[in-house]
Amino acid sequence: MTSDTSTEVQWLTAEQQTQWRSFRGGAARLFAALEHELERDTGLSTHEYEVLVRLSETPDRTLRMAQLADNLAHSRSRLTHTIRRMEEQGLVSRVPCVEDARGVNCTMTEKGWQVLVAAAPSHVQSVRDHLVDVLTPEQFAALGDAMETVRLHLTGGACHVE
Amino acid sequence: MTSDTSTEVQWLTAEQQTQWRSFRGGAARLFAALEHELERDTGLSTHEYEVLVRLSETPDRTLRMAQLADNLAHSRSRLTHTIRRMEEQGLVSRVPCVEDARGVNCTMTEKGWQVLVAAAPSHVQSVRDHLVDVLTPEQFAALGDAMETVRLHLTGGACHVE
DNA sequence: CCGTGGTTGTTGAACTGTCAACCAAACTGT
DNA sequence: ACAGTTTGGTTGACAGTTCAACAACCACGG
Questions:
Q1: Residue B104 near residue B92, CB atoms below 8 Å
Q2: What CATH number should be reported for the domain holding residue B49?
Q3: How confident is the model at residue A32 (pLDDT cuts 50, 70, 90)?
Q4: Contact status of A10 with chain B (Cβ, < 8 Å)
Q5: Cα-flanking dihedrals φ and ψ of residue B82, to 5°?
């Protein structure tokens, strides 16, 4: 779309549009490449990988479903489906929560841990190859800062990432 | 594979990890928000919107399926499905290509044009609200530059247009 | 010509994510 | 104590994506 001075819409400048497209296109291709390489090398999707990462960072490798969903910015139902599939693969297990009988605790199994440990080096290398090592440290830091600002703004600053 | 001084994995520093997570999390939430708002306000998915944008930028509002797929970084089959659905909605039409009997030209209909014109202001505003106006011009420019570098690296510098 | 190989685009099955409906348990106020 | 509301999580139907197989066509070298 080209800018149109006859409307009240505040269009993007040509420069902003180029930058926006670079961002969208670059991010889409980057995430697609990472997804593809992780799947190829380890059989995990990035979503499954992220689930394992989050669980691995808690003392008892356990999280409530809702916390996991919030952390990953996934819908509850999406997480339910994902966890069910991962449970079938033996990567995680679900146990009812004692303190809150509505709740469900999701725990990483030993197999899940081993799968994560085996997958991590390859994935980290992918992130390096396609993102971190392609940019200067300053560029990469700017990327992180900017997107953190975006995230805080989107979540009303109320999101704690743990 | 990069040449490494040892067989050990080169992990990300704590700082890099934070930045990477901010980037991934922020981008995921941003794209999800834009998708949701576009769908809510116009009934279009971002993929359909992008198809219409690309078509609108050619002189005759027409592109070959393969060019469209490359432009959007979508698989051929994905594009075929998307275009079939859009054709059912009357947004685009497909006609066999004269120069190359294998090919198919995808053209925007008048309805498609009107839908795009009606959708664009709302979408641009969303992009402003959640991204452009949240950052300084320098931050936003840095984002675009960095992701353009990433994109060029991923596509071997062989990707044109945009 | 013919055959081989590469390109273009489509198809259908399997998989993944979305959405709305739903149940059960926990809180809330009277 | 108890109806009404909120929260945690699941389910099933539906929509969109992926993947492999396929058909049709071009291009090029015998």
A1: no
A2: 1.10.10.10
A3: very high
A4: yes
A5: -60, -45
Enter the tokens of residue B6. 């040892």
Per the structure block, which two tokens stand in for B92?
């685009």
Note the pLDDT tens digit of each residue in B106-138. Answer: 999 999 999 999 999 999 999 999 999 999 999
Q: In what order do the strands lie in the sheet with A92-96?
A: A62-64, A104-108, A92-96
Does residue A52 fall inside a structural domain? yes
Domain count along chain B: 1
Has residue B10 got a pLDDT over 80? yes
3-state secondary structure of A9: coil
User: Does the C-beta of A100 come within 7 A of strand C?
Assistant: yes
A92 vs chain B: nearest CA distance in angstroms? 23
Domain with B130 in it: 25-154
User: Is B104 an interface residue toward A (CB < 8 Å)?
Assistant: no
pLDDT band at B46 (very low <50, low <70, confident <90, very high): very high
Tell me the CA–C1' distance in angstroms for A87 and C25: 24
Closest nucleotide to residue A96 (Cα to C1')? D9
Residue B123 lies in a domain: yes
3-class DSSP state of A162: coil
- Out of B32, B134, B145, the one facing A153 most closely (by C-beta) is B134
Question: Between helices B137-154 and A137-154, what is the axis angle to 10°?
Answer: 120
Q: CB-based contact (8 Å) between B139 and chain A? A: yes
In this structure, what are the phi and psi dihedrals at residue A155, rounded to the nearest 5 degrees? Answer: -95, 15
Residue in this structure with the two tokens 């309805």, named with its chain if needed = B111
